[in-house]
Every structure is written in C-alpha cells, then in structure tokens.
Amino acid sequence: MAGTINPVAFLGRTRRRGRIDITDILSWLWLIGGTIAVLVPVVWAGLSSMKPEAEITRFPPSLLPRTTQQVVVPGYDRPLGLWTVTIDGESREMAMVRRIGIKAQMVDPENPAAPVSVDARTISPVQKLTIATENYSDPLERFNFLTYLKNSVFVTVVATILTLIVNAMAAFALSKYRFRGDKAVFVLIISTLMIPLTVVMVPAYMVIVGVGLVDNLWGVIIPTVASPTGVFLLRQYMLTIPDELIEAARVDAASEFRIFWRIVLPLTAPALAVLAIFSVLWRWNDFLWPLIVLSSRENFTLQIGLNAFQGEFSVQWHYILAMTFLSLLPVTVVFLFLQKYITTGIAGTGMK
C-alpha cells in the first residue's frame, strides 16, 4: 500500500545508507535510555500499587506483587508464614514462630513439635503472586475519593476551556491586529515567565480573599486562566495563518468575533490541542495553589485528597500508590487522544 511505513525499515534507518554512524548510536542510546527512564517509574508504581502494605517496604524489594504464604498450624492462634529451610542438607518448608536477631524459631506445619532454631540468614520466604485489590477498593469506600476526583475534573475541564478561550483571544489580537505598542505588550506578557510563582502567590491570594473566593473551586480556577506560555504558543501559530484569508472574510462582512470563532480557531486546532494538554497537566497535578485556597474537605482536589493518606507517624504508601496510579488514567487518556497534534502544533509555532 502506498504511503505505508515499514516499522523495521524506519527504526533501522541510518544517517548514511548502509553505514552506521556514531550519531545513529547516540540517537538510539538516547531514545532507549529516555524511554526506560520514563517507563520504569510508571511500571514500578503500577505494580507496587497492587502489593500488600507489608511488601512495599520489604527489602530487598520485589518487582511483582508477591506475599509470603501463610499456613494454619495447630496450637498457634494466628497463621504463620511459610519459609524454605535447609536442615542437614535437606530443603524443607517450615513455619516461622518468631524471629530474634539472626535466629528464627521454625516448626513443621504438618507435624508441629518443639520449635527448631535456625539461622535466619539462610532461610527464604515461600511467596505467591498476590494482587491486593483492597488498595483500590478501600479508598473508594472509606475516603472521599470520588468527591476529590469530581472536584479535580471540574477544575481541570473548566480551567482548560477558559485557558484556551482567553489565551486564544489574546494571541489573535497580538498576531492579527496592528496597534501602537503591540510588540511591547507581547514582550511584557512573555517577561512574566521570569517572575517566580512564590512572588505572585501572596498578592494572588489577597485578591482571592478580597473577592470572596477562598475555599471555592473558582478561586483555584480563575487565577490560573491567563498563561504567557499559551499566549506565546498560540500567537506564533496564528502568525502562520495568511492575513489575506482574514481580509477576505472582512470583505464578506464577517464580524471580528465570527472571524475569530469560525476561521482562526479551527485553523489553530493543533496549537490549541498542545495547549490543552499542557493545561490539563498543570491543573490536574497542581498541589500548592489548591492547598492554599481550599480548606474544606468537600472542596479538596485529588492531589490534596491524596495527602490525607500521609499521617504524622505513618504513611499509607499502598493507598497513595494505588490512588496516584488511578489518577494518571485521565491524563493518559487526554494525552493519547491529542498526541497527534503535538508535533504539528509545536513545529508550527516557529514557521514564521
């Protein structure tokens, strides 16, 4: 079929035909290393989210979610862990009664007699593959996870829509209108990127207090709508749209808003998709600003809600990993849906 790309031929392409260059080797190492660096933490978090609580902190750590098999031994109130023990050159499976230092007291589960003392360094647990589904079910039942999820979805969706509209209007004005000081305004907007977030956080909070949006989801959304990154990205892309197309629409008596809504925005779809991905990532993962603005549990976003699993003396890592991995799914879906626009949108910002 015409236009079909052979994956093997594509991956095997070199800088020089029939010859491997040093740049080819460096490119492969960079791509493979980058892929591994990105995937390993995600895979580890996903597998660890299915481990029982005791297995997460076990050393040395295991990749797959495994637990020590337990067996009921007559004469003991609770199930005992099963371990592989070598006694007189014979390997046997025995239950551990207790462990003191480097000595472990073991009994035969089928014929429990007096415990046998063995070196704890020579025994190994008998493990089986176990998926701890309660890591996902318990937070959904006992905590307000669905409420936190609903708040995060509301903040992310509304903030992203407003971000696209506000930044697109600013970019349209800066790219298609000529007025005195337009370059200075654009430079002023871009220069705000150099201002640290901590500098504007206190004034922004004072404004939120003044307008009565403290402990309100709109107080989280509104201050984050205007983004200099979004204005820059969309303006650079809109510069590639021919001015003659807009002039022709004006000749046909189209209003400025109609030109913006029906002509410019559809043509800017790749750049809008890129900005949408950035906005979703920013809003979904934001922790500090919602932590400052929100104080009621019913208004908490997902990232603040996950902080509830961290106590003063203990951290419930099994719940944190499970809910964190679950919270990655919406962002992943958005990225997979819009990823085809990323290259086009970013490449198009530098065409003019």
From TrEMBL:
Q: Which InterPro entries match?
A: MetI-like, MetI-like_sf
- The transmembrane residues are 25-47, 153-174, 186-211, 217-238, 259-282, 317-338
What protein name is recorded for this chain?
A: ABC transporter permease
**Which family does this protein fall into?**
Belongs to the binding-protein-dependent transport system permease family.
Q: Which Gene3D superfamilies match?
A: MetI-like
Q: Where in the cell is it found?
A: Cell membrane
Segments forming domain ABC transmembrane type-1: 149-338
- The answer, when asked if Cell membrane is one of the entry's keywords, is yes
Q: Give the record's membrane topology.
A: Multi-pass membrane protein
Question: Which BP terms from GO are recorded?
Answer: transmembrane transport
Q: One GO term of the cellular component aspect?
A: plasma membrane
The top of its lineage is: Bacteria, Pseudomonadati, Pseudomonadota, Alphaproteobacteria, Hyphomicrobiales
The record lists the organism as Pleomorphomonas carboxyditropha
Mind telling me which Pfam families this protein's record contains?
A: BPD_transp_1
Q: Which UniProt keywords apply?
A: Cell membrane, Membrane, Transmembrane, Transmembrane helix, Transport
Q: Which PROSITE patterns does this one have? A: ABC_TM1
